[in-house]
């Protein structure tokens, strides 16, 4: 997803949640329910989201509730996603951006990403993970759980099944573009 965005596919999305081989899945026994949830969480904060299988048909109550939680997070962030889609139409910049796009020096961090310049998404990508490390660049960052962290730093955060770890930049002026092109009026800080 990150690579596609950097080669000009601004509205890229992950593959279908549930996989493409619908015929290979015959119910709850055929689905890795945790994988289904974590995949839905990644897709929830990308430009597009699509299911190949109805979650209610293949998930138990606990995993279905976690998918609903991911959909709630998407709904909360949909205005941001749509504004980034509009921006991408004008600039060609990716909606989902590698960490190094807004934080030089974080080129090797490939399991988290920026959704625009002020929101870091750190989805779970390891089976049965209850915690994950998150790299935060310079600045103050408020996590979705309310904690505030000062970067640059690396933290460990809890990752229960129903959580998509996210960190919002907390400053007087939100950054609207990576450093380097401040002469262009489009990229001046907003208030």
Helix content: 25-40%
- Tell me the overall shape: globular
Mean pLDDT equals: 85
Identify the strand order in the major beta sheet: 1-2-3-6-4-5
Largest sheet: 6 strands, antiparallel
Query: How many structural domains in the coordinates?
Result: 1
Distance between the termini: 31 Å
How many β-strand runs? Answer: 6
CATH-derived architecture: Sandwich
What is the CATH top level name? Mainly Beta
How many separate helices? 5
Q: Would you list the SSEs in sequence order as H and E?
A: HHHHEHEEEEE
CATH fold annotation: Immunoglobulin-like
Assign the CATH superfamily.
Golgi alpha-mannosidase II
Roughly what fraction of the amino acids lie in strands? Answer: 15-25%
Based on helices, strands and strand pairing, what is the structural class? alpha+beta
